[in-house]
């Protein structure tokens, strides 16, 4: 009985730890999305740069998350691509080319959609028909 209680406690602790990490990543991703929206909507170059810097910091934090083993490499690759796009956008802003910077920022959303598809559960149709 004592061993059963210990086993249940250790399993629940592992489960809680895993869900907490997923929750932390979810919060971080939402904060990235919020910073992205602020950057896209802003007309002030300093504000856009500030939001880009914030996104880069949050993405670096996200790269430390525990991704599924089979998706880890692709997930990190996607995050690195987003950082590259953000850095390119920042360079355009520093040159005073805000329109080009905002155009470049829109690629972040395309990358987001592409790499989020990796983490979506399969649909009922995919489960039934492969």
From TrEMBL:
This is Soluble cytochrome b562. The keyword Signal applies. Belongs to the cytochrome b562 family. InterPro entries: Cyt_b562, Cyt_c/b562. Keywords: Signal. The keyword Magnesium does not apply. The lineage of its organism: Bacteria, Pseudomonadati, Pseudomonadota, Gammaproteobacteria, Alteromonadales. It comes from the Bacteria. It comes from Pseudoalteromonas phenolica.
């Amino acid at each position: 009985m004592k061993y059963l209680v210990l086993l249940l406690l250790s399993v629940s602790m592992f489960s809680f730890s895993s869900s907490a990490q997923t929750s932390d990543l979810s919060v971080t991703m939402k904060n990235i999305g919020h910073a992205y929206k602020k950057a896209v909507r802003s007309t002030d170059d300093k504000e856009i740069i500030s939001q880009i810097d914030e996104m880069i910091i949050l993405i670096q934090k996200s790269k430390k998350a525990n991704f599924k083993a089979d998706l880890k490499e692709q997930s990190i690759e996607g995050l690195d691509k987003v950082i590259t796009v953000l850095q390119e956008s920042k360079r355009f802003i520093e040159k005073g080319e805000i329109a080009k910077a905002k155009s470049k920022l829109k690629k972040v959303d395309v990358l987001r959609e592409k790499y989020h598809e990796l983490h979506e559960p399969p649909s009922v149709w995919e489960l039934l028909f492969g």
